[in-house]
Amino acid sequence: MKYVVRGEPDYVDQVPRRAAFERAHPEVQITYHGPHWEAVISDQSGQTVINRHELRTLLDKLEELTAPDGRRVRGLPG
């Protein structure tokens, strides 16, 4: 998987973290949209969308929403 992002020089530090999160949570799709990052969480009730300007803060929020069992993502956006 290749990640190319302009405008966020320290995002490279987060690439392994993002890849690990995506492997553990296939129900979450993380994409870069120019000035911001977006995560779409799909579950039985629909989708939750979370946006952050930095990949690091998006991953922090996603990990905060992750249930203790490490497999489910709670449906409450932040």
Q: Can you walk me through this structure?
A:
By secondary structure, this protein is α+β, with helices and mostly antiparallel strands. The protein has one domain. It has a three-stranded antiparallel sheet, with helices on one face. The radius of gyration is 12 Å and the shape is globular. The mean pLDDT is 80.
Task: Outline the low-pLDDT stretches.
Answer: none
Number of domains: 1
Distance between the termini: 28 Å
The major pleated sheet works out as: 3 strands, antiparallel
Classify the beta-strand content into a percent band: 25-35%
| Spatial strand arrangement across the major sheet | 1-2-3
Radius of gyration: 12 Å
Report the helical percentage: 25-40%
* Order of H and E elements: HEEEH
The count of strands amounts to 3
Determine the mean pLDDT.
Answer: 80
| Shape assignment | globular
Number of helices: 2
Structural class: alpha+beta
